[in-house]
Structure of Pilus assembly protein PilX:
Amino acid sequence: MQLQFWRRQQGSTLIICLVFLLILTMIGISSIQSSTLQEQMAGSARDYNSAFQAAEYALREGEVYLQQATLGSFTGSGGRYTICGDPASTAAGCVPPSWRNKSSTGWVTQSGVGNVNSQPQYILEKYPLIVDVNAPLDADTVPPKIEMYRITARGYGVSENSMIVLQSAFRRD
């Protein structure tokens, strides 16, 4: 009697082991997918950080240029442009290069940044002179004018698909 009971139980052990193995396989595949996704997210974060730091470097270099005693003319060459107010204006220096197109020319390229796909770049745009609203109003004096500039910098990350664009306004005294 006991021998027949043993023979009926042998097949169920195989089925239970196969189900258990299937569950372990599914857990393993899920863990692999999760770790792969985490590695991709870490790589993207590193790429973004590299691009952001490169753009900040170019932005700082543009600010250093604007702190010089004398500036070149803002005629559309050497990364120096003028904000003309009219978007349709084609006057010299009024049409800055597109920041969206990586191959656009007219940018000042900085060197010395490692671990990036392309070196960071910047352009400078000069606003028309602005009246200082904080100046005292006197009937016999003309309010002073303020020189304002916009710096647009773009930095690239490790991959060719990452680009960060930063802008800052700069007041020159």
About this structure: The two ends are 105 Å apart (CA to CA).
